[in-house]
Amino acid sequence: MIKHDIKDIKLAQKGKLRIEWAAKEMPVLQSITDRFRKEKPLKGLRLAACLHVTTETASLMETLKAGGADVYLCASNPLSTQDDVAASLVRNSGVPVFAIKGEDNKTYYQHIMDALSSKPNITMDDGADLVSVIHTKRKELLKNLIGGTEETTTGVIRLRAMAAKGVLEYPIIAVNDAYTKYMFDNRYGTGQSTLDGIIRATNRLIAGSVFVVAGYGWCSKGIAMRAKGMGAKIIVTEVDPLRGLEATMDGFDVMPMKEAAKIGDIFVTATGDIDVICKECFTLMKDGAIFCNSGHFNVEISIDELKKMAKARRMIRDFVEEFTMKNGRRIYLLGEGRLINLAAAEGHPSAVMDMSFANQALCAEYMAKNYRKLEKKVYSVPEKIDQDIARLKLKSMGIKIDALTPAQKKYLQSWEAGT
User: Fold this and answer.
1) pTM of the predicted model, to two decimals?
2) Domains (ranges, CATH) in the chain?
């Protein structure tokens, strides 16, 4: 048996069936897998991936292996692992996996170290924890690295901060910057899966509720859109005037969080910043208020302050912790403040992850072929990759689009023609 640290290898058969089910909605990644199997663009390369260990990630691992890569996988969040998927990857796919749903912080970082024991040539991150650990605790691994990819907004922010300070030691492609990632994964994937997580955890009616969304980036737009579609009254909180204006024009109420805290029934954060729901907000929330996070890290809700303020705590349902305040009010934290769509549900639908992980696979191939030309900075996904993925996705859906005529191309490239 290959090296691994998972919950239970006996879960492998269940995981295999769930992986098969998800793969049916991932035709773009399958077409890349078929090509990789023939061309082996990643042959001889070791790849360490720190991603949510889900059914969709399993398909990506198969694609990378088909391309010739030697892959090690660890979790990018302590609550996002699907234990049956981890078991199937170990037993049926031969992928060393280090991930257990609910693992503590110490185990989480040990698993990152386990994945890095592969001495990778390429890193594949969701949140930039692999890159961070390499740059702080495993600098000796830098000599083997040719590049990496990053899946999510939070990770890209961290990596760009590193690049700006001149401490990033190898090139990274920001997969999150691809149109075929953030416009679909962030908006439609996060929108649907966040509502799914809230409903599974609470079984509360969304219709008629006052639903507060912190932030109005692509993830938050998706959450607000889906909650509105289910009949909620939406409030958006923002710090960016342009996004605040956009939310207003989209028909939502916009106000500071401390005002929203007084009237909200359900709160969701998705900003990537700390203390979005803060100590003062807890004092203002009404009895029965529910709050959760859909940003990558569990820092958006001031959980430590909440624990200090509460006179009693108890788990009242799976993924629902009740905090009784000194005046008797009861307020509810979901999923320990971690990604609610993965803590209490299954994450994004495979149809959107098809495009996100197609970007990961093709960017790994691009890095393998072009790393000698790249500097130690963060790059956007090449436009051709983005366009090719969109084209493949449309084809898989049986949708055709127009093509520019020679005359139209000439017109768009000229400046002489007027009215």
Assistant:
1) 0.92
2) 9-181+347-396 (3.40.50.1480), 189-343 (3.40.50.720)
